[in-house]
Structure formats: structure tokens, C-alpha cells
Amino acid sequence: MADRADRAVHSRVFAAASRFAFDAPAEHKGGLFRLPAGAGPDGWQRLSGGLAPDAQVRAVAVDPSDPNRVWCGCEDGPYRSDDGGDSWVPVELPGPYRTVWTLVFDPNDAATLYVGTGPAAVYRSTDRGEHWELLKAAAIRERLDMGFPTRLISLAVNPADPADIWAGVEVGGMMHSTDGGVTWTDTTDGLEALAVEDRWKSRLFSDTDAEGMLDIHKIALTTAAPSSAFIGLRMGVFRTDDGGAGWHSLDVGRFSPLTYCRDLRVSPHDPAVLYATLSDESLGRAGTLWRSDDVGATWWRYDREGFSAESTLMQLALSPTDPDEVWCATRRGDVWATTDGGHTWIAHPLPAGGRDIYSLVCG
What we know:
The chain is mainly β. The protein has helices spanning 2-6, 189-194, and strands at 13-17, 31-35, 45-47, 59-62, 70-74, 77-81, 89-90, 99-106, 109-118, 121-125, 133-134, 151-158, 161-170, 173-177, 185-186, 216-220, 229-233, 236-240, 248-249, 260-266, 274-279, 287-292, 300-301, 313-318, 326-330, 335-338, 346-347, 357-362.
């Protein structure tokens, strides 16, 4: 394992940073950062070339059919680069929604790209971002007031069925389409119902104990369970096997003392393998990385020697070419990488001002 641990990472990595709150300190500038393939821990580049110096970037995605075409999502809409991030052009979306929180490609069709915004809305392009449509039926009932607009923070297209699309709202719940986004079903009632149990009650800013169950962060879909959906949220990791009518916990608390889940991913190399970031809370002092090899039935601690995330673990990035190369990032701006399957880790902190990492991508 030592030769793998000592080698330079081979993935190019993008990290999107933003401010957690409007009253964040001035030195928390946000921005989009790139670490070239083979670069060392201090090799991060702050990207501009059309992006504002203090751009609040919350999403980034690389076109799976063209690694030079990169997308990022900002407060004023999406931006596109055709040269790997050196220069950027703004992309106009039809309709009133501008602040982009997520960008995702259809795994079945690289020409199809979805954008989720705040306030919560879904846009789609089927021609690699040249033209866009607002999916007007993508809406769920407002159940609580958090003091800020809800945002559509996660989108997922079923790799086994491109018509099967899921969307998660922070803080608001889940919705599901089985016809490619033409119609949507609000699948939040089953999540809300779980909050009758004390262990699933959480109230921070609203007037309902179901707040924690509606605080969606990430959706994961896998061909290993093509009729199911997995979600990471404030209260842990949950699964539905009936289109969202009912949800049940994967009980990650049986394995981890920390259960606040910010990111949840399926391995691109094995559909039975899931990764989850588990922390103490949103503005936490501890973050850990866990892996399941049996589609979420059991979990084991993946971060080991040299890893110390004294902050909420916000994001994951999995190498599309090497199953042993995994990246993760914290709220305070630390980025960690392993090239030997989690045995050893190297820190790659973002430059000063880069923190609150909302998106991390290898590609």
C-alpha cells in the first residue's frame, strides 16, 4: 500500500466555496478552486476569468462527455467553461429563479443537464446547456418557515431509468417524478410522519419538530437497488422502496456516534458501495467518512491514519477511474485525499478565504 499512498493524486479536482450565512466574516470570500492533476497540497488555483472574485459558488459539474466543459452554479445563475475552468461565460435561465444550488447530468445521457435553484425550482437542458426549460410542475407544499427561501439542494436521475428523477429541498422535503419531470409527486409526508418518534425530532428555527426530517442534503440512486432511493439528511440516512410513500432509517447510529449526513454517494466502480459523510451538526467540530459495501445494510469507518476533520464534513468526490482515490471536504475549507482506499490521507486546505465547501468534483 505504501507506493500508492506516496504517489501524487491523478485526478483534477474542483471545489466550490460559499458563505454559510449573509453575516459571515468578510474574509470568507467563497469562490471556485481547481487543483490540477498531479499537483501537491498547495497547488489550488482560484478561478476567475469571468467569475466575480468573491463569487458565491455552490455547485460544480464536469460534462462526462467533455472534461474541458465545466459548469458552476452561483447566486446569479450558472456559468460554463469550455477550457477546463480558465474562462467562464454566464448562462441565462428562463424564469425568475437564479441562485443555483445543484447541477447534475443524467447518467444515461450526457447531453441532459438539470439545475436546482433557490427558491426551489428545477431547470433542464437536453442539448448540453444551449437551451433550458423550467419544469413548472416541480413543486412541493411548504410545511415550515425557516426564515430563508427553501433551496433545491440535490437532484438525482436513476441510472436504471432516466424517467425516474428525485429532488430534495433544504429545508422542505422530497419530490419524485416518474415521467422525466413532466409531473411530480410530493413524497414528504412519509418523512414528516417519522417525527412522531422522539429520536427523529429536531427543531432549530421553525415551529415544528419535523424540521430535521425535512432538512434534505443529498440523494443517491444505484442500480444495485433500482427501485429504491437513499437520502442523507440532518437525522441520518434513510431509504424508500415504494417511490417515497414510506421511508425507513438505515440506522447508521448503530455504527457511528455521529449521524448528521451532508453527502451520500454511490461508488462509480461498484453499485453496492455507498459512502456517507457523518458529522455532529451543521456547524460542527467533528466529521467522519463511512462506507457501506452492502447497499447501506452495514457501515464501517473509512477515514483512518492522518485524517482529522475538526469540522462538519460537507462533501465527497469519488475518482471515476480509481476506486481507491477518494476526496472529502469540510466546512472550514480543509480538503482531504486518499489514494490507498482510506488507509492514509493527505490534507489539501483551500487558500485563505475558501471555506463552506458545497460541492467537490473529480474530473
